[in-house]
Write a structure and sequence with these properties.
By secondary structure, the chain is mainly alpha-helical. It is built from seven helices and no strands.
């Protein structure tokens, strides 16, 4: 099953490369027929909506990614950052673009806690300080 879920992701990447964005999203959604969503797939779906400035939809998928429990023994192709750092950082950007700086800052701080050495989070922190959040 894990290989089939990853195959859906790989199919989506191929379809994006061919310019078939609708087909790529369908491939990602097809993985949901196989089992509960994996954080990796949720991040991919979130990116799909993020790249199209559909931040409310992207937020849903990034929040879902962050809520998934990681299972390193499942045999899946686990990408650890998809369970915390990536969705938190993307939620920061989504909320910033929607004008909710308080929530954006909250998620930046969560991402920074995952990666204390992150220059991106450090720069975001300075940005939010300049906005007096």
């Amino acid at each position: 099953m894990e290989n089939e879920i990853d195959a859906c992701r790989q199919m989506a990447y191929c379809r994006y490369a061919l310019g078939n964005e609708a087909g790529a999203l369908r491939a990602l959604l097809q993985s949901l027929e196989l089992d509960v969503p994996r954080a990796e797939v949720c991040c991919d779906i979130g990116k799909h909506f993020f790249d199209r400035d559909q931040y409310t939809q992207a937020i849903f998928w990034y929040e879902t990614a962050a809520s998934r429990e990681r299972d390193d023994r499942s045999g899946a192709f686990v990408q650890p950052d998809c369970y915390d750092y990536i969705p938190y950082l993307q939620l920061c950007v989504c909320y910033d673009r929607l004008g909710n700086l308080k929530k954006a800052n909250f998620y930046n701080e969560k991402a920074w806690a995952c990666r204390p050495q992150s220059k991106v989070c450090q720069n975001n922190h300075l940005y939010f300080q300049s906005k007096q959040i």
